[in-house]
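Quick check before the chapter quiz. The format below is the same one you will see on the exam, so make sure you can read both the input and the output lines.
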Amino acid sequence: MTDTPCIICCAITGSLPRKEDNPAVPVTVSEQVESMHEAFEAGASICHAHVRNDDQTPTSDPDRFAALKEGLEKHCPGLIIQFSTGGRSGAGRERGGMLPLRPDMASLTVGSNNFPTRVYENSPDLVDWLASEMLEYGIKPEIEAFDLSHIHQAAKMAADGRLKGPLYIQFVMGVKNAMPADKPTFDFYIETVKRLAPDAQWCAAGIGPNQIVLNEWCVSMGGHARTGLEDNIRLDKTALAPSNAALVKRVTDLCEKYDRAVATAQQARQILGLAAA
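Here is the expected output.
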């Protein structure tokens, strides 16, 4: 067990459209701010954020990201704001159009992999460009590792200066056609991170019913945890939690079970090497 407090990241919205049976999913900026405020009060210190157009389609519109950032900074003082540069909300460099807003963090996937119905494409040129933008604007990447090779690539990019260390690596497990939620693989991921990037911090996201499984593995083994409706709904669109805050509460309960402190926003900033808010 570690003395390091557990950082809880809440992925509040994701990119799936809100359905009639998914009223808990916040879509508008005001809904997102309200939902994240509740999650922040419950113990989350990072907000992983997507935004959408009025018709609920995902977008990388910088103006919408700016409005969300302003609302979160006002209502969640000190919260670490992390923007998604994922492929569902745009193509090519459009995916990084919000980075000049200088969020604290941004997600970065350093390689391609299969998704349920498509290839999640992250070409070397695009990865290098996104990484260079994050360096320019002082943004800490969260490496989304969908595959073991992504951990190796992130370590290589840190070694040659394309990423600024220490790294923060998130294992994504349970995506259909990608890496399953497999405990021996999870253990090997941790071993690989410790070998290639011994100063890195790590966390994990489990998709659908695997969310609580990965939460417990992370809390019990000294890592950090990601939760939220984005990951909770992908495999089972009708089995939703009542709110993002309720999902954060599940993680804080696990922290109590395993005698882990829950990181405050300021503690999370110190652990991740981020500036004070």
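If your answer matched, good. The chain has a mean pLDDT of 93.
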